Amino acid sequence: MARALLNVPAKAKRGDIIEIKTLMSHPMETGFRTGADGKLVPRDIIKSFVCTYNGEVVFSADLFPAISANPFIAFTTVATESGTMIFSWTDDKGQTQVQTAPISVE
Amino acid sequence: MRARLVFALAWLCAVPGAMAQDTRKSGFDYMSRDSQAMQMDDLANPGMLSVLDGESLWNAPAGSSQKSCASCHGDGTVSMKGVAARYPAFDEASGKPIDLVGRIDQCRRERQQAPGLAREGHDSLALTTYIGLQSRGMPVSPPDDARLTPFRADGKALYTRRMGQLNFSCAQCHDEHAGGHVGASPIPQAHPTGYPIYRLEWQSMGSLQRRLRNCMAGTRAEPFAYAAPEFIDLELFLAARAAGMKVETPGVRP
Fold this sequence. Notes:
The complex is a heterodimer.
Chain A: E1 4-7, E2 11-12, E3 17-24, E4 46-53, E5 56-62, E6 72-78, E7 83-91, E8 96-105
Parallel strand pairs in A: 2-8
Antiparallel strand pairs in A: 1-3, 3-6, 4-5, 4-7, 7-8
Chain B: H1 2-14, H2 33-40, H3 47-58, H4 69-73, H5 76-79, E1 89-91, E2 96-98, H6 100-111, H7 122-133, H8 149-160, H9 170-176, E3 181-182, E4 185-186, E5 197-199, E6 204-206, H10 208-218, H11 229-241, E7 251-253
Parallel strand pairs in B: 5-7
Antiparallel strand pairs in B: 1-2, 3-4, 5-6
Helix pairs in contact in B: 3-7, 6-7, 8-11
């Protein structure tokens, strides 16, 4: 099972710019490396990352083979209202990992 | 009276050696600020992903005993406090020193009655990192056990012996040229305080022995096999050399 570490402020003031940091465990196999048998190791990378905040996409990214294993993605958004942030990472195998974090806005 | 006391204190401080400064530095001190920041932030240090995996392995029943590590050891954050800081230690059963990785595997096979954990495998690294974290901030404390002395001495001999086609000893790089460079890489003092580490070059976790195999390959020597007695002896010597320095597990290294 893949692991993620999320750094989302639990509380924020309305209108504040908040920084969100995410670390996802993934090999990010580029598809350019050869294995012990001399054959190419099939590509397996996270292709896309999306963060929604109360249902609205506030950040998304497409990822490519030059990105390191266990990608660390940080971004900012504006704290608008209390609710939930949902993070999802989708890889070449079609697996999607979803994590949520609550945020309370005063 | 007061003046005399001040004088006495000043004299004490002037005694050679009494205030000798510890010139030892962790590999951490040779890293860029960005890498240091990555190690220090538990939500950015990829080694913490391994800790999470280790924590769930700790609590998962396995083997024919269907016991988990927690069944016998309880809460790992309590029972494993300070354990990693005093390894390698003497193993009564085999009459030889054993490192932490070996001890975990021993419990796995003999007490949990589960298949052994491959050295450098994901699960072995995860459990070692989880247990290592419980000593973070504590001083490296090699056991004061006379039975370890000959093995530690052998480790020291290996450390100072030239090896490989390039004919370097560990000491030539890590004592005589610490602070210098090999290519673009700064040469650290070779303290084993951060292991297992997340190495950016590996893009993964790795044990101290993996690091040592890298150094040996760098001198074009044939690396000892994983778990070879030579490695345990080297680990013993490195731990004695780093005694009192703080455990950093999980370290980040370039």
